[in-house]
Amino acid sequence: MTLDHSHTKVILIGNSEFPYWPDGDIKNIEVNLEKLIDVLCDARMVGIINPGNMVVLANKSRVDIQVGRSDFINSCKPEDNLIIYYAGHGLIDIDNIDELYLATNDTRITNKRITCVPSEELKSAFW
């Protein structure tokens, strides 16, 4: 299968700053996102993405990520190919280890269910 580059859209989500999480900060997430953008847009490399078809959400709150994701989905058409990328911390629920939570910059470990983005919520938005 070959991707139709004109119908490929990307959402890149990355969080490196966790002010409510002692020692939670991750170095180089922004650099990671920048390098991935370079690879996706450079015709000498992957070169498949028009920068206008890309949304970058770096160091955003849960609400900002949810709104950005919703706006992204609403901009997509049925024929679009979607690439979703997340860089940052993930947390599991001790009561349900199959549930993964994506940490945001307002994540509080003691309240992950309301301060993180559940991976199932992200997935279900695209299915």
Name the strands of the widest sheet in spatial order. 2-1-3
Shape: globular
Biggest pleated sheet: 3 strands, parallel
Spell the H/E element sequence. EHEHEEEHEH
**How far is it from the N-terminal to the C-terminal residue, by CA?**
20 Å
* Quaternary structure type: single chain
Describe this structure in words.
The protein has 127 residues and is an alpha/beta fold. It has a domain at 5-89. Helices cover 29% and strands 25% of the residues. The chain contains 4 helices and 6 strands. It has helices at residues 29-41, 62-75, 112-115, 119-124; strands at 8-14, 54-58, 81-87, 90-93, 96-102, 117-118. It has a 3-stranded parallel β-sheet, sandwiched between helices. Helix 1 links the parallel strand 1 (8-14) and strand 2. The protein is globular and about 45 Å long. The model has no long low-confidence stretch (mean pLDDT 87).
Keywords:
about 30% helix, about 25% strand, three-stranded antiparallel beta sheet, about 130 residues, alpha/beta, three-stranded parallel beta sheet, 4 helices
